[in-house]
Amino acid sequence: MDDQTRPAFQVTGRRGPEAVGHLTATMTGFARTLRAAGVAADHERTQNLLRAVGHLGTDRDAVYWAGRLTLCAGPDDLPRYDRCFAAYFGGERARPGRTAPPVVTVTRHTVSVDGSGPREAGDDQAVPATASRTEVLRRRDIARMTATELDEIHRLLAILRTRRERRRSRRFAPAHRGRLDPRRTIRETLRRGGETVRLRRRAHRSRPRRVVLLVDVSGSMAPYADTLLRFAHALVRCEPRATEAFSVGTRLTRITAELRHRDPGTAMREVSAAVPDWSGGTRLGEELKEFLDRGSGARGAVIVIASDGWERGDPSLLAQQMARLSRLARRVIWVNPHKGQDGYQPLTGGMRAALPHVGAFVAGHSLAAFEELAERLSHA
User: Fold this and answer.
1) pTM higher than 0.70
2) When you count CB atoms within 10 A of the terminal residue's CB, does the N or C end of the chain come out lower?
3) What pLDDT is recorded for position 120?
């Protein structure tokens, strides 16, 4: 961004409609840049930023702290915020240690600096501009949550709406552009007495790409298995005809029919009754071989394996079957809950055997990780 197009911080003189409009466009563009970088700078947060800038001023430090306090939802957003701030406004990146952050409070109508009181008179109670409880829970490890917090995560998973990558079908549908449809064109001509008025065309239909989930329900995965199955339920609910789910442990069990119940509680009870090997061992190599020998629809599908890789069988068998799976599938995604922990390294025999044949190795320990996985499936 050159000097001529770089957004200006100072709005000098009297703030007329043009200056206010320029400031609004600049802050809105900055929020749009943050959204593209993965920061949840939605419309409400952008409005809070505009109110904060209106009270704190438009110098560089004030804009930096106003955006940091209103647009960032957690610690993970801060590095991305600093990079976007430096790229959007130019110059050296603002550093948190240079000046003390202003304390900002948010009301229903205004944002005011602490110590001066609300800018508008009224009975609205000022609330600190901090991350909401839901935002905090989104990135917390499921294994460290209380029962109440898990219930909240399960409620959010129950309303999760996922998209799916589309693939071209062999079937055709009428379209404005595409190849000529001779049958429809001839029928149209006959209806008009032999006069060809319009050439009819057709194009390939699109269908959601199939996703197959293999969820490890062994003892080492016990803290995460229930939540992973609820995520599988959300995928099945959104695309019931294009999603298959299996549990893996000491046996391979198809649980797609059980997960098609609309109520999550009913679905989990049905799955619990159908799976015979809860909290047992893990023989991923043998079960992948059984899955592929069945012809369970791996060809052209996105395969999601949720496991920590604690393989009790022969790792060489797992490597052989993973290589076979990678040749058939559109993509193989391995979800390991421990990957979200600091300092984790995939040193177990199962993970070391599987990783060379995996297209993506992602975390699966929090609601945010599940949301990122769902986003991956939308453009796998």
Assistant:
1) no
2) N
3) 44
